[in-house]
Amino acid sequence: MLFSSDVFIVGIIFGSILMFVKLIADTNIKNKLIEKGMLDENVKYLYTGRQVPGASSIKWGLVLISVGLAYFVAFLFPDNEIRWQIAFGLMILCGGIALIAFYFIAKKMEENNRQE
Q1: CA 44 to CA 63: how far, in whole Å?
Q2: N or C: which end of the chain has fewer CB within 10 A?
């Protein structure tokens, strides 16, 4: 079966380890820069959020709504052995489409903020 709990557990553990290592590496870099006094405008630009406030909420809202909608649509198909493959494929496809849509929304929001 495609949606085995073992696959999810391994994915969650692997993703958590990667995020933890990235967090530690970023913190070490920031601390070293602070200790050496190398804080100039270029470094500040690297570590400041450049997105419009609320953009992250819009992004994840779009992704979760589209994945949920894809899951719902996949279960409108007859009950057979490929239903899970259809659900998985639609969820990935709709999640990708939501991220592309968010890119254009964020771009438009950023242009509006620059004009103000």
Answers
A1: 30
A2: C
The Cβ-side half-sphere exposure at 61, using a 13 Å CA radius, reads 6
pLDDT tens figures, 11-59: 888 889 999 999 899 888 878 877 777 666 666 666 555 556 677 888 8
**Nearest-5° angle of CA 17, CA 97, CA 85?**
70
What's 39's DSSP letter?
A: -
Length of the chain in terms of residues written = 116
Residue located via tokens 């290592």 = 21
Paired tokens of 57: 């909420």
Q: Classify 3 as helix, strand or coil.
A: coil
Q: Which of 91, 95, 75 is nearest to 83 (CA)?
A: 75
Is there a contact between 59 and 34 (Cβ–Cβ < 8 Å)?
no
